[in-house]
Structure formats: structure tokens, C-alpha cells
């Protein structure tokens, strides 16, 4: 056991050891039995949606549910239901699309599963990150996985080949789901729920080099392709903050719907989509004018889980019941719902 996991998780090990031990078996063999749901930080709610590089598969989760759903986007069918999680937090695909990672803050782990078989990989399938493991960001080459830990207020850099922690970065204040790498991979941007700030980490040294303040209940963040601008959802003030990264300050805000969680940039960088939890809407912001140009209705408590196809023609928005709304961006409207909740329940 590495030093980080020993020092941060020892106090909670007795509570979660039985739950954690059951996860690999359930995830691997599809057993119906699930452990009693004892959460470590269940009062914190978030969702996640990851799209495979070939855009054929979507993997989704909601922290209130102990299952992770895998969809075939071509057919709209459920490919699999991965059971045995407690509070799944974030999902990210490996660059080659052959596997994906799921963090769970109650289990204190990040599991890596095969995209085809939906089973844990033979090696380095469970990465120990300690109770509180939350948001994740993967390097472009897939060799490094950064994991926010909201309980220990740290970020861990894990080597994906060995599953070992290579660095534990301290100095954060409850980092949750918001974590993004700069386009060149040189900087890591980490949201801090306490203090409402974004911490900037130099990925070459694994050292904090600065911070940006001035947010109000910060949620999701995104960074433009040129690395100059950061967008952040302020759920406390119902707006999206616009940040000049070089100046390290908020230069403006764009009012959106109530309780915004999302701040997803389209592939061409021209628009930001904000999931407004309390309004059941998504606001579309024109980056050039910093104005809302469309408001799309018909969602069910959308949060930060918004992704786009590479051509930018389609947006997928995750709903609270783990159905996915397919949005035609040209018309800014929902055109389909992928695998409704009833289909998941019947799987």
C-alpha cells in the first residue's frame, strides 16, 4: 500500500473494506447482488458522461446510484449495467478507447474496465486513491491520471501502466469534479469547493504555481484550445465566469439559468453549454459575444455531464435518471432520448 493511501484512508478503512472488496467481483461477473450502500460523502451529488473516441459508446453515472450504465449509441440500447459501486463520480476514456476509468469516492478507488468486455483489466485495474476520490483528468497519451480527492484536499498523479501513485500534490481545499488539463498538458486546473477558487498546477514539477479567485459555488470548468480563457459555472450566482488565464482573474460573467453546473465548450470553441439544474434547461453562450443565444428545454436536472461529437453537430446531455438527451445543435433542440430509464431498469 502506498504512503498516500495509508495516511489518508486508515481512519475509514474499517467502514468501507467490505464494500470495496465486493466491487471487482460484481463488476467482473455481472452478479445481481449489490452491497449495502454506505456512502463516504453521499451528501455531495454529481453526474458524469463519457463518450468513447469512436463515438459508439457512452458510459454514464450519477452519484446517487450505485450502478454505472453503458450505452450503445448506434442502437440506443443498454450494453451493460456495472454494479457494485457506491458513489461513482467521474468517467473518462483512455485515448485509444479500449478502456475507461470510473472513480468512486466512497470506495476510494478508480477502476479501469475493458470497453468491449466491460470487465476490469487484467493488470492495474484498481487504482487506490483514498476515500474522497472524485474528479479525474487523463493526459493526452494516457500515461498519467490526475485524481482530485475532496476529503484529503489533494490531487494524486497516478501512473496508469503500474497503477502506482507518482505524486501527491497538497494545498487544495476540497477539490471535487472540476479538473482540466491545458491543451498542451503543461498546466492542471483544479476547482476548490472551499474558497471558490481554481488552483493552477505545473505538471512538470507537480507544484502549485498560482490560483484564480472570484467564483461563487464553482462547478464545472473548461479551457479554450489556445489555453488563454477558462469558463467556470457559478451555481451560486447563476452565471458563467469568463477567466483570463494569463492575468489570473475573472474578467466577466454571463447570466444563464438557475443553478448552473455545466460549462462545456463545443469542439470548435465557439460556444459554451451550461446545464442549469434548477431550470431543467441548457443555456448556449456565444463565446465571441459572451451572450446567451439559445436556451434548450426538456431535460431532467442537467448538471455538468455534457459532451459533443467531434464534428460538433450533436451534443449529449445526461439526465438525472441516466437517460441521455441527444441535441441537434443546428436547431438547438432535443431530437431523441437514448435508452430511457425504463430500459435501464429492465436490463
TrEMBL record:
Key words, A-Z: Signal
Organism superkingdom: Bacteria
Pfam family, one: Lactonase
Signal sequence residues: 1-27
Gene3D superfamilies to which the protein is assigned, alphabetical: YVTN repeat-like/Quinoprotein amine dehydrogenase
Name assigned to this protein: Phosphate ABC transporter substrate-binding protein
Amino acid at each position: 500500500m502506498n504512503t498516500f493511501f495509508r495516511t489518508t484512508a486508515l481512519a475509514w478503512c474499517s467502514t468501507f473494506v467490505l464494500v470495496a472488496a465486493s466491487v471487482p467481483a460484481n463488476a467482473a461477473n455481472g452478479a445481481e447482488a449489490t452491497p449495502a450502500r454506505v456512502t463516504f460523502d453521499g451528501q455531495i451529488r454529481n453526474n458524469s458522461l463519457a463518450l468513447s473516441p469512436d463515438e459508439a459508446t457512452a458510459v454514464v453515472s450519477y452519484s446517487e446510484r450505485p450502478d454505472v450504465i453503458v450505452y450503445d449509441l448506434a442502437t440506443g440500447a443498454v450494453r451493460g449495467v456495472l454494479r457494485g459501486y457506491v458513489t461513482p463520480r467521474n468517467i473518462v476514456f483512455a485515448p485509444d478507447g479500449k478502456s475507461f476509468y470510473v472513480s468512486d469516492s466512497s470506495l476510494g478507488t478508480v477502476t479501469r474496465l475493458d470497453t468491449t468486455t466491460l470487465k476490469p483489466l487484467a493488470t492495474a485495474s484498481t487504482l487506490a486513491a483514498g476515500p474522497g476520490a472524485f474528479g479525474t483528468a487523463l493526459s493526452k497519451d494516457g500515461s498519467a491520471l490526475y485524481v482530485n480527492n475532496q476529503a484529503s484536499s489533494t490531487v494524486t498523479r497516478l501512473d496508469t501502466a503500474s497503477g502506482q501513485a507518482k505524486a501527491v500534490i497538497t494545498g487544495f481545499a476540497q477539490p471535487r469534479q472540476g479538473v482540466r488539463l491545458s491543451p498542451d498538458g503543461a498546466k492542471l486546473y483544479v476547482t476548490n469547493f472551499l474558497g471558490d477558487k481554481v488552483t493552477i498546477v505545473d505538471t512538470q514539477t507537480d507544484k502549485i504555481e498560482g490560483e484564480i479567485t472570484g467564483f461563487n459555488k464553482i462547478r464545472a470548468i473548461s479551457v479554450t484550445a489556445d489555453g488563454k480563457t477558462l469558463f467556470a459555472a457559478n451555481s451560486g450566482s447563476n452565471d458563467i465566469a469568463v477567466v483570463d488565464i494569463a492575468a489570473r482573474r475573472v474578467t466577466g460573467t454571463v447570466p444563464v439559468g438557475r443553478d448552473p453546473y455545466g460549462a462545456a465548450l463545443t469542439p470548435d470553441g465557439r460556444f459554451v453549454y451550461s446545464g442549469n439544474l434548477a431550470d431543467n434547461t441548457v443555456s448556449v453562450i456565444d463565446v465571441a459575444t459572451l451572450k446567451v443565444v439559445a436556451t434548450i428545454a426538456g431535460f431532467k436536472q442537467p448538471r455538468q455531464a455534457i459532451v459533443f461529437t467531434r464534428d460538433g453537430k450533436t451534443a449529449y446531455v445526461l439526465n438525472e435518471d441516466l437517460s441521455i438527451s441527444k441535441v441537434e445543435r443546428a436547431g438547438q433542440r432535443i431530437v431523441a432520448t437514448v435508452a430511457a430509464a425504463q430500459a435501464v431498469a429492465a436490463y
